[in-house]
Amino acid sequence: MRLLAIAVVLVAALGVVATLQYRWIGDLAAGEEERARALRDVAARHFAGDVDREVADIAGAFQAATAAEVPARYREWTSIAHNPRLIEAVYIADENRIRRLDGDHFVDTTWPAALDPVRPLLKGPPEHRRPPLINSIPAVVLPLRPPEREGPPPPRPPWEMRGEMRPPPPPFEEDRRPPPPPEGPPRRPPPQRVIALISRHYLAQSLFPDLKRRYFGDEYDISIVNGKELIYRSTPQVFNAEISLPIFRLGPPDQPAWHLIVHRRGAALEDVVAASRRRNLLISSVVLALLAGSVVFLGVLARRADRQRKQQLEFVAGITHELNTPLAALTSAGQNLADGVVTDTPQVARYGSMIVKESRRLTDLVGQVLDFAGLQARGASSNRERVDVAAVIDEAIAQSNWIAEEKKVAIEKQVAGGLPPVDADAPSLTRAVQNLIANAVRHGGDGGWVRVRAAHEDGHVAITVEDRGCGITARDARHLFEPFYRGRDSQNVRGTGLGLTIVQQIARAHGGTISIDHRRAKGAAFTLRIPAEAAHV
User: Fold this and answer.
1) The dihedral of CA 457, 462, 467, 470: what is its sign?
2) Alpha carbon of 332 to those of 338, 351, 517: distances in Å?
3) Are residues 261 and 389 in the same domain?
4) Hey, what long-range contacts does 267-274 have (CB within 8 A, 24 or more apart)?
5) Does 85 reside within a domain?
6) What is the pTM of this model?
7) Which residues span the domain enclosing 416?
8) Which of the residues in the chain have pLDDT under 50?
9) DSSP code per residue over 303-359
């Protein structure tokens, strides 16, 4: 009852652990997926931020510059920029003229087709708050600051220099004034813009691949698109977007921004997390199964230990009874003979026969216990020699004749001719065969017949002892070779439960086996197989 209660508690504990572990693994998988998504999103934002930072640096380099300052501003930017090849060309343009920076000066050139989206911006006055980037090119377009007026300021009138007020004009001075200037403001040159053309080739061949390696490594693939136009893709394979983030965000909101598209290489993130969750569940299930198996195994061991404890107690009780019976008989017979109670010859002979029989039973009992203890202590015997199996069988039958006569059982011998010798310890092998014969006589002697057969089979000498008794049940067959085990139908048969255990240990010590024939409908048959000598195999 106590073992059952412990088993129930352990099973309940395993159930609680399994439930908690399932929840923990689910929470762990959700956290892992969230962390992976966060890392991916952070990498994408850093990627877009680095691209926008490069564009912002270009815009800052030419902010509020005059036409004369543009070459110096460009040289300064190239000296400090991380990617000086990002600018493909620098232009100054108005609605009528475009010039390209060549060294330290500008030269006239034809209008590039790539800069056509800039032309509409040149027809009106510059908008200083307009975003500097044109995404479709891409190019940074900024208004130039007009040059300051050259030369010294005009001289002030003498009365201003003296701090006096202007004197009133003499009479008729208004008639001598110069004519007024023509109507309308003075004509100004058209406003100019500086255009920094960003190199698409450098973006696709250098900047984007470098940023991809820095932030995504080999775990993700990316592509950069401008609307339907593909600018860059890290792999030739087409993939679906897991996340899409705009870049070149310094342009006007009415222009479509370039987009960074990210996709995890191989399986999708959800599939990877699900596979990891399944793997963790499998591992935890195996661990729980091992724990459950350990609980079951401990239960089996506990039951076996309890059974062996009971068997040992029964063995002690049985051996005490087995020893007490012959000792009492010997004591009684000896006392009667010593006291002269028995004087006639037939009675003395009968008492002598009883003393011999009980002494043999006592000797056999003590021998079995000593054999079991000796085999447990020393294992395989080292006294090996070439042994004739027929002689071993004859000796075993001779040692068993007394119990066969007592049970009125006939022992039949059937040994095949030309039986090869075996490499064995003769006394141990004899003890094994004698135990099989004694066991057959005790438990199958109701049939009045026991046969001992020996034959050469597949390199082994097979010794079979069979009887015509009631046979062996399936529930007993599994435990017959366990120490101290006695079958449920043999409670009334005298014995220690060690005979078959000793036979099995002797068989293993000689590299052989002992088996039961389960096909017999009645009676029992045990077969001891010992390897024959190599020269006779």
Assistant:
1) negative
2) 10, 10, 43
3) no
4) 268/242, 269/33, 269/36, 269/37, 269/40, 269/242, 270/33, 272/36, 273/29, 273/32, 273/33, 273/36, 274/29
5) yes
6) 0.50
7) 379-536
8) 150-151, 172-175, 380
9) HHHHHHHHHHHHHHHHHHHHHHHHHHHHHHHHHHHHHTS--SHHHHHHHHHHHHHHH
From 266, 294, 325, the end of a domain falls on: 266
**Residue 477 domain flag:** yes
Cα atoms in the Cβ-side hemisphere of radius 13 Å centred on 73 = 22
From CA 218, how far away is CA 59, in angstroms rounded? 33
| Parallel, antiparallel or unpaired: strands 220-226 and 229-233 | antiparallel
Distance CA 88, CA 93 (A): 16
Check: CB of residue 220 under 8 Å from CB of residue 37: no
- What's the pLDDT at 150? 47
* Residue given tokens 């097979």 in the structure block: 462
- pLDDT for residue 495: 62
Range 381-416 burial, b when 16+ CB lie within 10 A, else e: beeeeebebbebbbbbbebbeebbeeeebebeeeee
Residue 316 belongs to a domain: no
Q: 454 CB contacts (<8 Å, ≥6 apart)?
A: 389, 390, 393, 414, 415, 416, 419, 461, 462, 463, 464
Q: What are 76's two structure tokens? A: 């300064």
C-alpha span between 102 and 98 (Å, rounded): 13
Q: What was the pLDDT predicted at 445? A: 74
Asked if residues 514 and 462 have their Cβ atoms less than 8 Å apart, the reply is no
Q: Of the candidates 192, 245, 244, 252, which has an alpha carbon nearest to the alpha carbon of residue 66?
A: 192
By DSSP bridging, strand 449-457 and strand 410-415 are parallel
d(CA 43, CA 347): 111
CA angle 436, 356, 431 (to 5 degrees): 25
The verdict on 385 and 255 lying in the same domain is no
Which pLDDT belongs to residue 368?
A: 59
Instruction: Output b/e per residue, 418-440; b: 16+ Cβ within 10 A.
Output: ebbbbebbbebbbbbbbbbbbbb
- Of 266, 288, 310, which marks where a domain is finished? 266
101 Cβ neighbours under 8 A, 6+ residues apart: 70, 71, 74, 89, 90, 91, 92
Handedness of CA 82, 86, 89, 91 (dihedral sign): negative
- Smallest CA-to-CA distance from 487 within 524, 450, 520 is with 524
Structural domain contains residue 228: yes
Domain total of the chain = 2
